[in-house]
Amino acid sequence: MHYFRPARERGSVDLGWLKSQHSFSFANYYDPKHMGYSVLRVINQDSVAPSKGFDTHQHKDMEIISYVTHGAVEHRDSMGNRYQVPAGDIQVMSAGTGLSHSEFNCSDVDDLEFLQIWIKPQQTGLAPAYQQARISQEELLTPLVTPDGRDGSLIMNQDAALYRLALKPNSQFELEVMKACGYLHVVSGAANLQQASGSAYTVRPGDGVGVSGEEALSIKTESYALEALWFDLPSA
Hints:
seven-stranded antiparallel sheet; about 0% helix
């Protein structure tokens, strides 16, 4: 494997109301060996306590994606958007020239679980934009966010694509790198990964694997299903 990021080695923070695991350097967690992968800059696995959240803050020139796995996010921003983003929805906020927003746990009982993903934009200085949708799983690999909105996906300002991979137990799939490199982040379940070179790993929730060039990943599940996010990425 070109790059393997075990979940247990991620940066972490515990603020009481927020428990977060950082795949790459973020905020007070800094590791020069893990600054991102290609244009993928942030994958934070956040758990937010009931009725708590991130107060109004600013972003500029970043593609920010929220992937909710449990609960719902209450989103408000300076463009006048106010939405709830439940588990199963995908949210894309293109910060562009700048905007302010807040994100809170809608529930006063249950924790909110979601992945916060940042991708560097291809062009800077564009007008900010907001998108949200529920994209059904039609195939094993379903596009969620792409440069052109193909197959009902949302659009990002980058020559990259984000897919949801869903495999049943005792199944197999060949994951090909279409651009310069790819990154797989495991959301739930487990699988065995192998390259033609012979490199092999067993991956579990929170693990990440990066591959480059024309490499491919052979993915095989056994007793567990697998849900993962696959990033098809350009050269940095």
